Structures are given as structure tokens and as C-alpha cells.
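Incident log, structure service

09:12 report received: a user says their structure output differs between two submissions of the same chain.
09:20 pulled the input from the user's history:
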Amino acid sequence: MTQPFHHASLSRAQSIWILGGAAIMLSLAMGMRQSQGLFMRPIGEDLGVSASDYAFALAIQNIVWGVTQPFTGALVDRYGTRWAALIGCLLYAAGFILTAFATGPVQIMLGAGVLIGVALSCTTSGIAAKIAARVVRPERRSLAFGLVSAAGSIGTFFCAPLAQGAIAAYGWQIATFVFIGLTAAMLPAAFLGSRADKVPLPNQGAVSETLGQTLGEARRHGGYIVMAAAFFVCGLQLVFITTHLPTYLADCGIDPMVGAQALAVIGAFNVFGSWLFGWLGDRYPKRTLLGLIYLLRSFILAAYFMFPASQATTLLFAAAMGTLWLGVIPLVNGLVAQIFGIRFLATLTGIAFFSHQVGSFLGAWAGGVIYDTLGSYSLAWQLAAGIGVAAGLMQLFMNDRPTPRMAALQAQAAE
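09:34 re-ran on a clean worker, output below:
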């Protein structure tokens, strides 16, 4: 008989409600975050903010998210997810309020940059993965990570057209207030998802661990270092696309709504892609799947920018990239759980995510600098594709063996 999906201490309904709350919180947080590139041109025209200034604010957002994620993860591993998630929702609203009343780049940097950056570390994949890891059985974790990750794309499918429609009809400030309203919906979802804190952790047997010991294991594990380094490229490529694709399309004379449609298509196809790679991750080596994602992304990115853009090619590009978009999340979370266990999952994925966000910072800011300097994105996409190939090859050959502590735990469980 097939084993149940949920943890033994929960009913099926309880696990669905908890995972649903985490998924809605993540969906809205990621949907709003990935739609912020749509505000670049209208804010620039209204406030006189250059593309590089706005891109720098989003770059600050990503680096603040990355810097705070390990500390948020450590607090979640120690005290649970509830207060981190609820505070993150409030910070998200505060960031949009400050942006809505901005008069120049400083307020945008503080609102869209710093406040939303901290909010994201409290409401997105690191927290959602911790919830999923506690709610489902170990042998189904990769699929659970994939299902929750897919929720992040449903938000993009919904938020991008909503934002573009509000911008076109009422202006960017009203569109910002629409997003403030969406942050209110995150609060009950965060409260519901954080009920996972009451689910007991797996029995650690005779082999115990501390945060210091686990960090020491991670520092000495070459595979973890390679995975974190490759994660840098993931952030660079994805944030370059979400930040600069709308401006690139406008330069090509294409209706701005196509940019919103492309982000929505990315979101729709990532629902399938996240589920697919979560499902595959329970059956095939996660490092191999990760390497293939990086390689395929790079080839698709190069192919799109090498030829003239049109609505059709843009939506095909979005569908292909969307299938590969957040498929890395269940695989990275699954690799960390496979190598180190889930006791400090949020901390270890948070540290790896810092590398991702350094890449996001460069993808947003350097893309804007290259565009302002050269008047073209050609050099930016060439660099993004080139380092993606290198990261994919590194990832294919990483060491994914469990630590001696985890190997001992697995031996105990097999007895």
C-alpha cells in the first residue's frame, strides 16, 4: 500500500490546510516581488528615477533578502515560523507604503529595497520549505517542496497582469496600493501555515546535533559549497529577467502588456515545472537535475536574445524559462535535507540563498548599469548565459553524500 503523504501526527486535512497557508503566503510574496520590474518605467517617468537607480533599489532588496535570510532561518529553526512570518507580512506592507509616497530614489531604496528585502526573508521559500519539511513524510519531501514552490508562480500569474492593468488605468501609485491590499491577505495565510511549528521533529536517536556542529559540517562539505556557488547564477539569471525584460521589450517597440503577459506565463509554467522537478527529485539524483536546469536556462536565454523579439517569441521564451524557473527550490531544499537532515534546514538553505541573492543583486543592478552605459542589454545576457553554463557543469559533479552523522541516523533507521 502507498504510504500517506502527510506526517504521522497529522490528518490529511490538517496537512493540506497547513501547506495551503504556506503556499498562499509564498504565492503572494513572490508574485508581488517578481512584478516589480513593471514599475521601472512609470516610476522613472514620474519621478525622474533612472533605470540604474530603480534597478539598484531592487538590487538592494535582493542583497538585504540574502543577508537576512540565514539569520531569519536560524530564528525559525530555534523558535518556529509564526512570528517571523507575521512580522514579514507587516514589513511587506510598510515597504509598499513607503514606495507609494516616494519622491525620489532614496525612499524607493528604503521601501522597495530594504523593507521588502527583509519581508521576503520572512515570507518566502526558506520559511515555506521548513513548514513543508515538518508536515510531510521524509520520502515525499522533494515533491512537497515542489508543490509549495509552485505556489510562488501562481502569484506571478495573478499579480503581474493585475499590476500592469492598474498602472495603465490608474497609475503606478494606485497599483502599489493594490499590492498593499494583497499583503493583508498574507496575514491569515501565514498564521495558518505556522501551525506546522506544533509538529514534532523526527526522532534524532543517539546522534544529536547543534547549530555549531551543523555549520561545521556544511563548511567542510564540498558538495554544499558547490551547490551554494551555483545558486549564485540562479539568482543572477532570474532577477535579470524579471527586472529588465519589460524595459527590453519597450525598447523593441513591443506593447508593455507583453512584459506582464510574459511574467504571467512564467508563473503559469512554473507551477508545472516546480511540481515536475519536485516529483523527479524523489526519483533521480537531485544534483543531476539541478545541473540540467542551469544548462537549459542558459541555452534558452542565449537563443532568445540572439534573435529579434516579438510577442510570440517572448511568450515562448517565458514558457520555456517558466518550466525551469523555481524547479531549483525543491532540489536545493531536498539536497540540504538529504545531506544534513531538517533540524537546521532553514539556516543552511538560508546561507546558500545568500549566494543566490548576491547573484540577484548583480542581475538587477549590473543589468541596469550595462543598459545605461551601452544602451543595450547584449553584454548582460551574454554574461548571464556564459556563467550559467559553467554553474551547470559544476553542479552535475557535486558531492551529494550525506554527512557521517546523517549516515549514522540512516543506519539506525534501517535496523
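09:41 both user submissions now match this output. Likely a transient worker issue. Closing.
09:42 reviewer note: DSSP finds 17 helices and no strands in the chain. The chain has one domain: 12-195+210-409.
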